Amino acid sequence: MRINGATLVDGVDLSVGSGEMVAIVGPNGAGKSTLLRLLSGDLQPTQGRIELKQADLRSYSASQLATHRATLSQHINVTFPFTVEEIVRMGAGDMGIVAAHPLVESAMDEVAIRPLRSRQLPTLSGGEQQRTHFARVLVQLACGEARHGPGLLLLDEPTSSLDLRHQIELVEIAGRRARNGTAVIAILHDLNLAVRFASRIIVIHRGAVVADGPPAQTITDGLIRKVFEVCADIQYHGDGSPVLLPQAMKSIGSGNVL
């Protein structure tokens, strides 16, 4: 993917199957969001092709694509005074209010925003707004999967405005979708959360994939040093999954604890 002569993503060759939970990690500017926008159809690749369910992504109309994949974007600006319930219902598209009602109620319950249903979105905190949009995306996903079977859920830094409890709840909700067959791909900055969230981690550095596999194989001392340019103390659970200790991280070439 090239824009104005700059290569943002290059040589990426990936396949994600139904039921997979994949976390994309990497430093700022690595190309993570560009890759997700390519996967969602928001951007078109300058070379190569992207397929969804064995069909070229470009063969889908916008309305068709919306029934096969749902995307939670990183930045969503809504200034009109829609209520929480109205925002969540937007995920149902052209489905009638009566038919959409149980899906809307279920999504609001799952992300714990039912008490906010009559609040106007601009009056909410950043985290509450993020959970509202996540509920909307869940409704969109449910509507599409009811028609076409398991779909694709794309999450761009979905936990950026959430407190610890709601971060964990969100990744657990995404995990439930994966166990039901949805392919889930999320950009995450918290590597420990990525390890908890994903059975597969893709590491992006300077627009290229530098690691792809189970957490224990990808989150290593050498990779953290190379990609994130820090030294980190990595310990391991009994199940072999890595845990990074942030208080032990030091910048390479510095004795200062970050």
TrEMBL record:
Superkingdom: Bacteria
Q: Name one GO molecular function term.
A: ATP hydrolysis activity
Q: Do you know which Gene3D superfamilies this protein is assigned to? A: P-loop containing nucleotide triphosphate hydrolases
Q: Which InterPro entries match?
A: AAA+_ATPase, ABC_transporter-like_ATP-bd, P-loop_NTPase
Per UniProt, the keywords (alphabetical) are: ATP-binding, Nucleotide-binding, Translocase, Transport
Task: Tell me where in this chain the ABC transporter domain is found.
Answer: 1-231
Pfam families (UniProt xref): ABC_tran
Question: Which purpose does this protein serve, as stated in its record?
Answer: Involved in beta-(1-->2)glucan export. Transmembrane domains (TMD) form a pore in the inner membrane and the ATP-binding domain (NBD) is responsible for energy generation. Part of the ABC transporter complex HmuTUV involved in hemin import. Responsible for energy coupling to the transport system.
Q: What is this protein called?
A: Hemin import ATP-binding protein HmuV
Q: Which organism is it from?
A: Nitrobacter winogradskyi
